Amino acid sequence: MFGISFGELLLVGLVALLVLGPERLPGAARTAGLWIGRLKRSFNAIKQEVEREIGADDIRRQLHNEHILSMEQEARKILNPQSVSPQPPVAPAASSETAAAPTPASSDTTPAASVTTEPTQPPRAP
Q1: Structural contact between residues 84 and 76, judged by C-beta atoms closer than 8 angstroms
Q2: Alpha helix locations (H) across the chain?
Q3: pLDDT over 60 at 1, yes or no
Q4: Which of 21, 26, 72, 80 has a Cα-to-Cα distance from 44 of 20 to 30 A?
């Protein structure tokens, strides 16, 4: 990871043995291992928190964009009601035993708004 070879580690171990002595070296190695473990756990906790915050920022940004889009659609409906066609209501699913009957168009709707399912021209006979 840092480019430390086995020879360099051996040299550090020999220097530590000479400086600390054989009695204190195992305790110092244990203490160093504990500190390194704590640093790794702290680093991982900070890393996870940053990733969680980044994810939360993305979600906040997406919700903000959706809110802006809905406000824009409402403004278009208010400013230009003829160009916005209303969404057809969603009919509940009909069971296999009963079929849903088509609802008659009201008299106040224009013919352009009504949808017909009949063909416009009769089929030709040979």
Answers
A1: yes
A2: 6-79
A3: no
A4: 26
